[in-house]
């Protein structure tokens, strides 16, 4: 096993996650099998109880792991399925060591950071690195490890010590350290300053780790004299210094690495030169170029609670981008704070109220993502009502589906007090209720989490067509509340169709309004399985409906499903090549969605 460690210096938020993902992608493009591990030095066991405002979104894995958002980057870039053990936290490590101590595994020894904590870290890395994550048998060739935070943080010291020991144990030819650091440009003099990186590397070396490659974040490409200076002071060859300058979209980052021969530097350190080929990134390059050239906009109103921090909805944004590129439209997101749509805001802050409604009315489609807590719920309900009554394409995810059910009960069934017991425990018309297996005393890891199966109840509904008319799908969940099964019949009689249910038939997974152009709500989170070139079917449906292409997309989905049921390749039924527009709208590229369906 070869290991690539990515560390960060100077400041956080430099893009270590994207850099680590891009390194994995370029090594995969060279013909290597790649896996990833993210180390988060915080004491939380996992990211599940952390506020999105503080740490960005909580990414959910197939096995139900609630992990750091960078694992989402790894999965999207590398098209792999990670496990919860691929995210190491201080909490997990200390918990495992304390559990061993309680069982007497240390045979009376004094349990210390060195060697017990550091050994546990190394054992965890070696154990997880061999777990196959790409659907093939056997371990990967390379494990890319990202150490969260910055060098010098007190929380990461045990991990630094463990990784220093680890690099010595596995040997120089099996370990490559890439240090991501900031080279700022001071506006006063317009000069690229190397001193922050010098100090960061000096701190790294004082802790026993020697960087093999420097990845320098800057607004522009590094000058030659700056690279020479960095090489001299940081003891890194000039050819091993890479500039990660600002690019139009993050899909260009792997191309930056390729163009600067980063793969050659990494392969040289790992003694893999001559074993692999040149990175095959043709499809990736074409997608990045296409994304830059798109100019015809499609506007999606994101009605949420955490609109002040885009990382809170990172996977949703990526899924929207994947779908918009497939529809050959330039994505424009109208961030609508849900609470600003409420009548109370109209009294207290009419400017914010009017601005929010203008953004909502300006959109071609409306998306209400998941969330927790009652702040902004009424705003989400009126957004769903606006989309329903004005026939605007709508997608509700998790809580977004639940508020769509509440709005329907209030407006169509006349249940003015219809609500979720999450927001009103005493409501007479509980449309959404707490799940029987949930816990109200233990917060972490007690929700319905991970990949669960949904069975389609209506064959010709839009969601079934988008998924290729399969009988069932597997998507990832994260929720404590669900649609009240006792109210389903009443809601269906009024026109709300529950087109997807779990295996018991009692848990509602998908809702649709059959007569609406596109009104879909799902209890699961389809954004977590969307990939570049493999958009989530439901996000593709939203973007297609918002850009006037839904009929064409549904028609192609039916043709492909029919072809696959006949054992024939769907690709033979339609010519794709130069990307020219067809009579029924822009060509939608043919990619697999991970469920065996192509678009």
Give the arrangement of secondary structure elements.
Blueprint: E1 2-8, H1 16-29, E2 34-40, H2 52-55, E3 59-60, E4 66-67, H3 70-78, E5 87-89, H4 90-103, H5 113-129, E6 142-147, H6 157-170, E7 175-182, E8 185-186, E9 191-192, H7 195-206, E10 213-218, H8 224-234, E11 241-245, H9 253-259, H10 262-269, H11 282-293, E12 297-304, H12 314-326, E13 330-337, H13 343-348, H14 350-361, E14 365-368, H15 377-389, E15 394-397, H16 399-411, E16 419-420, E17 430-434, E18 448-456, H17 462-466, E19 472-479, E20 481-483, H18 488-493, E21 497-501, E22 508-512, E23 519-522, H19 537-546, H20 550-565
Parallel strand pairs: 1-6, 1-7, 2-5, 2-6, 7-10, 10-11, 12-13, 12-14, 14-15, 15-23, 16-17
Antiparallel strand pairs: 3-4, 8-9, 17-20, 18-19, 18-21, 21-22, 22-23
Helix pairs in contact: 1-3, 1-9, 4-5, 5-6, 12-19, 15-16, 19-20
What's the short story on this structure?
This protein has 599 residues and is an alpha/beta fold. The protein has a 9-stranded mixed β-sheet with strand order 13-12-14-15-23-22-21-18-19, sandwiched between helices. A 7-stranded parallel β-sheet has the order 5-2-6-1-7-10-11, sandwiched between helices.
